[in-house]
Write a structure and sequence with these properties.
The protein is an alpha/beta fold. It is built from 14 helices and 15 strands.
Amino acid sequence: MSLDEKVFKACLEKYQSRSKDVTWNELADRFGFGNADILRNAFKKERIRRGIPSVRPEMVKHSSVQSMEETYRESTEIKGNGEVSSDKLIRMCEEDAKSPDSVMLAHGFNPELWKVIVCRNNLWHMNAGQGTRMRLYQSRITVAPRSQGEWTTGFVDKIFKSLYEKKPVLSTPINTKYVNNGKMLLVGISDLHLGLLSTDHTTGNDYNTEIAEEVFLKAIGKIKNATINQRFEKIVFMVGNDFINFDNTNGATTHGTMQENDSLWFDVVDKAIELVIRATEEFLKMGKVDVVYVPSNHDLETFYGVMKAVEAYYRNNDNVFVDCSPLPRKYYKYGKNLFGFSHNITLRTALDIITVEAKEMWSSSNHMYWLLAHLHKGMIYEQKGHLEIFRLPAISGWSRWSTNKGYAQTERKAQCFIIDKEDGIVNTLNIVV
């Protein structure tokens, strides 16, 4: 049995206008229905019979889709291991639903700080009115913080974008005819700790990114001045050795030790690339340059990425060779000289390691050297047979950690060596900055 037309019109007006001037109970009393539910059920059947939409057409888009989004019970769960689970109803295109970064953004997580552990999206098609449908996803994800400086696409894009937009200020090249005179300059600038924050009040010295850049460029200038009357067929430029103070956006080292830093990770990476290239350009005026990366404990992952950027920068330059391999120990042969480069090794294993890992180069060498860093002080250890072991001083200021450990450092100093192909190290340059 259909509703009386007068009753139906009153109910339809109430339903479509969402008016609060009259209640369903009042309408039920007015038209003699037992209660509001009986009247609403009778009206619903009549509305469906007449083919009237569930809401007025101009309200469909907002009342069905938007209302559902507003009433969906979103949830967030933070777990003891640092993971976070999020359940939301979100609007996405099909391609975005397949992208972990897009899904994380939709849930409010920065892909550069978080990574997806689990993701499940259930597709819902909602009627948006006038023959159109809205694509919604019931999305559940579990994410975890990026505990280390992982090289995501976003990270790499930012680094190279800044490199192209902000070209390093390079010196004007000088036309130099490189010589083959059997002389090599080995440049050791160790433990720069770019980004380290230290104050005179807490450690007895001031240090920050600006000071680090200043002492680094000052050291390069002093090295050039100290060798101004000499020419070399090769310059070996050792980089790494804790060039950067921290390894990720959390401000910690590779193994998670929190550091006191004055700059954001992105800014320090940009500056590191710039400084390595500026120094390489200066050394190119003196001879061909081999840039050798020495991995270390503060910036293992980040500086590998920095070196890949430097390698790409010089990919078409025949006068620059970049060794950016992640091997923890590097070996370099020049004439009758064999050099081992490592951030740190135990002295008792130094001889065994180099004779095994560089066996062929060892057998044809007259002079063998290890160049180490890490302890922030220059030292020459007791010779082991034909093997000499040097520990390079630090160019950086000293941190609270090194101060607390008692690693006494009285000056910021870099150390360079002039090498003869036959005679080995013939001169040591101490560059105090």
